[in-house]
Design goal:
Order of helices and strands: HH
Largest sheet: none
Radius of gyration: 21 Å
Distance between the termini: 33 Å
Number of domains: 1
Strand content: under 5%
Number of strands: 0
């Protein structure tokens, strides 16, 4: 699961190294790095959200397999 998120964050560095400073570029290196970092953060965020959704779906399936849907009670509430 963590592979997608770590890959997304690793891509930030790769993007940052690509074509940082060509003479005559309209964007500064700082602007390019900023945009690359934002893109990487969004990619990592999306990957993390996908992993959370997958975990929630798996948990729901496990609950259903136990005849669930009800509330589980622990401790003195049981």
């Amino acid at each position: 699961m963590a592979d997608k998120a770590s890959q997304a964050t690793g891509d930030v560095g790769d993007k940052a190294r690509q074509g940082l400073g060509q003479p005559g570029d309209s964007k500064s290196t700082a602007q390019k790095l900023s945009e690359s970092a934002k893109s990487g953060v969004e990619s990592a965020k999306k990957a993390g959200q996908e992993q959370v959704k997958t975990a929630q779906e798996k948990a729901a399936n496990i609950t259903k397999s136990f005849g669930g849907g009800g509330v589980w009670k622990f401790g003195n509430d049981a």
